Amino acid sequence: MTENTVEFGGQQLTRGDLLYEGKAKQVFATNDPSIIWMHYMDQVTALNGKVKEEYSGKGELNSSISNLLFTYLSNQGLQHHWLGSISATDELVKKVDIIPLEVVTRNYTAGHFVSRFGVEPMQQLSPRVQELYYKSDELDDPFMNDSQAVSLHFASEADLKTVYGLADQVNELLVALFNKIDITLIDYKLEFGRLADGQIILADELSPDNMRLVDQKTGKSLDKDVFRQKQGDLRVGYQDVLQRLQDALK
Ligand code: C5P
Predict the structure, then answer these.
(1) Domains, the chain, ordered by start
(2) DSSP secondary structure letters along 153-167
(3) Residue ranges of the SAICAR synthetase/ADE2 N-terminal domain (predicted)?
(4) Measured by CB atoms within 10 angstroms of the end CB, which terminus of the chain is less buried, N or C?
(5) What is residue 9's three-state secondary structure?
(6) For 206-225, what is each residue's pLDDT tens digit?
């Protein structure tokens, strides 16, 4: 691979225009319209981008964790956009039209669920909670209910049923995996997209930037809460998560 080209699946792929820059990722077109090139940055943000810092090596950690989790999910039969890793920080994914909804699953109370409802943190939620947020940086990703999402034509009722069903499948698989490595999956955000034929699949990334992960033995956070709460270097927890996943999945 040179910096901008890579051989993938017998095809020479070239990185094209920057399509989108998020808080921790850059998304580029390639010469194949069905394939997107994603680059994980070292940047970390909190409060929807209002607090920003660079942590060298963080992009690599997130990319490695995400790649392991997507590979695990495909081995369990779940379809998603991830195609393969092409460097320590870059990967190829299927082109999808992202549904502008963030799908949050909560297995335990934390974060905004605690501040919004005044409940104690770390209480198990049974059944798990599923929530939708409208993906909009300008509006700070406001909470959105199903009928608002349907009425605004972000997704049909059938699409939402599919999305919630997929989110439940992911939850079952991820909870089981993290339990095996003594980590509690508190909550996390997923995004979904539509392939050209309309099929809805899991997209975006799966990393401690988007999840709350707590060590079952020490009670310590192993995710972005360490940065949000100024508790030190978030890479320590991310590295720990990566190491445990590598050991469990090898
Ligand atoms: O902040 P809140 O408690 O609603 O977050 C729930 C979960 O969703 C957390 O794991 C958080 O990291 C994730 N999240 C995210 N991106 C957002 C909002 C929440 O990854 N824009």
Answers:
(1) 5-94 (3.30.200.20), 97-233 (3.30.470.20)
(2) TSS-HHHHHHHHHHH
(3) 18-244
(4) C
(5) coil
(6) 999 999 999 999 999 999 99
Residue list, ligand 1 pocket, CB within 6 Å: 102, 104, 110-113, 141, 187-189, 210-212, 224
Q: Which mutation among 69, 135, 188, 234 tests ligand 1's pocket best, with the greatest number of atoms within 8 A of CB?
A: 188
Determine how β-strand 11-21 pairs with β-strand 5-8. Answer: antiparallel
- What contacts 80, CB < 8 A, 6 or more positions away? 70, 73, 74, 201, 202, 203
**Closest-lying ligand 1 atom to the alpha carbon of residue 188:** 10
Helix, strand, coil in percent for the chain, rounding step 5:
30, 35, 35
Dihedrals phi, psi of 129, to nearest 5 degrees = -100, 140
* Centre of ligand 1 from the C-alpha of residue 189, in Å: 6
DSSP secondary structure code for residue 80 in this structure: B
What token pair was written down for 131? 């929530």
d(CA 45, CA 53): 6
- CA nearest 204: which of 89, 91, 61, 49? 91
Which residues lie below 8 Å from residue 86, measured CB to CB, with a gap of 6+?
1, 6, 8, 37, 92
